Amino acid sequence: MINFKKVSLLIAVLFLSACNSESQGNSSMTDKSTANIEPFVCAFEKDHLPEVDPELEKQYQEVRAYEKKQIPNKDEVNITNRYQLLADQGHWKAASQLATRYLYGKGTEQSYFKAVEWFQWMADRDIPLGYYNLAVMAEKGLALKEDKEGAWKYYHRAAQFGNPQAQYRLGEIYIYIKREDDIGVAYHRCAEQQEYRNSADALGSFYQIAEENYPKALYYYQAAAALGRINSMLTLEGVFRDGDFGYEINETLADKYDKLYDRLDKNPDLKFPNLSEMLPLPHHPTLGRYNPETDQNEMTE
Asked: What is the pLDDT of residues 77-118, one digit of tens each?
């Protein structure tokens, strides 16, 4: 019988996958893209974000709330203009929203070049997300000339400033392209500690496939599911529905994951911070259960 949930779930790609007539521009990166790639040290993005003016932040949150009130919002031009006013006053979150709106032509004419200008504005102020978005645009050749080396350096710069998206991207590259597992895992673990659910799921995949350490894999799949990653919740359901990886079939547990899946399907913003307490993972018959405090599998209850 076809599992329509599995069929309906598509593999996520980088958000900058489209390309139009502006994508082959000759804009070049600034000197900051040539920064030396230093050995990775885990950094958190929250420690590298500039303070924002309280009054501007209040206005920004009002715009965000208004934007989310109706989707699709019928007042997109006004929303874009309000972000523009805040960005012009130095509010970096509004600048990021504005750049994304130029990227997709939301409430304004689409312009990869204007998106790059605002992402560069962020990077010039060492705002991690600015570096990350410039990396993606350079890698894809959107407004910037396609520049894999420059993108590589920008990803590292963003990761050094704690951007979890960049840490995730580098984790995947180091593991699956460069075959440097230790470095890739370090990037993913850092992003996972910042509650970046895609890295939590990536760690689950790594320990499942590369090490066949199924208790450790399930620990990270569950961490991703707790952060609201619907595919990870589906993975957990399937393990106990089908008895995958040598686990015993447990229909009761599978049904509970299935109900949480349905809740996530209706509301993708849900998180389950107490998931590991709500649904403790059972012991694997031969490998035990993973203990994150000792980083070991343990056979005793």
From this structure: 999 999 999 999 999 999 999 999 999 999 999 999 999 999
Answer yes or no: is 6 within a domain: no
For residue 30, give the amino acid letter.
Answer: T
Segment 222-274, tens digit of pLDDT = 999 999 999 999 999 999 999 999 999 999 999 999 999 999 999 999 999 99
What are the pLDDT digits (tens) for 290-301?
999 999 999 876
What's the domain range around 80? 39-171
Domain assignment present for residue 245? The answer is yes
Which 3 state secondary structure label does DSSP give 118? helix
pLDDT of residue 186: 98
The DSSP annotation for 232-284 comes to HHHHHHHHHHHTGGGPPP-HHHHHHHHHHHHHHHH-TT---TTHHHHSPPPPB
Nearest to 142 by CA among 23, 261, 11, 46: 23
Residue 22 to residues 65, 141, 211: CA-CA distances in angstroms? 32, 10, 44
Q: How many domains does the structure of the chain reveal?
A: 2
DSSP letter, residue 145: P
Cβ atoms < 10 Å from Cβ of 152: 17
Residue 52 belongs to a domain with what CATH number? 1.25.40.10
Assigned domain for 257 exists: yes
